Amino acid sequence: MQISILGTGWLGLPLAEALMNKNWIIKGSTTTDEKLPTLEKKKIKAYTITLTENGPEGAIASFLKGSELIIINIPPGLRRNPEVDFVAKIEKLIPFIEAATIKKVLFISSTSVFADHESFPVISKETKPNASSNAGKQLIKVEQLLQENSNFKTTILRFSGLFGSKRHPATMLSKRENIKNPKAPVNLIHLEDCIAIIQKIITIEFWGEHFNASYPDHPEKATYYTAICKRMGLSTPDYDHKTPSKGKLISASAIEKELAYTFSKPLDS
User: Does pTM top 0.85 for this prediction?
Assistant: First the structure.
């Protein structure tokens, strides 16, 4: 099978390598020509593709040609630029998917589609997305656009915060002061578990579904990051303990049951 991965960055590149090890043919996209040699060196068929609100820029038809599956792994970029219309970018991409050989779509979304609350609600597979933030609302709309399209089958995979051996959010939090929500549950997932879950979905053909993905343990934010920063030799974060904490607890029980998946990388990995 040939797979097109739209976005081969921190998650997409090692994902492409893992899928190639399963003998799948991989096409990968990047937004800069400078990164093409990196992909090509790893035997990935590389393309420069940029999604814009006026339509994809680059050889999008060639990128999709011959592929049965597209993995959309593009961050909305709304933190850097709140004015971005991510929905429009995906709307303009969809006609190219419809015109191609694509039969299946895996959309990498985020658990930010669920709002935080002082009661720390447990978010299960049955919980309806209810984000109030601009980014969350746009992701909800994109999820709907893809899943309601009858030209292909879409599975939505919502990841919590990603971390790995070379990247951990603690490195950023250690530099901040007065951090909000110190008592909120931590929702994180290791890069290796992300890749393994994606492989499992593809291997067992689990399409037309949606999953929330987070490691099953959820320590208190302040306790966890203080311990991680000490272990990494970083200054410990400073927290706002006066304002009531808001958060949520992402349950991955559906992934464990329906995909028969066992998480392998705990939060102290």
Answer: yes
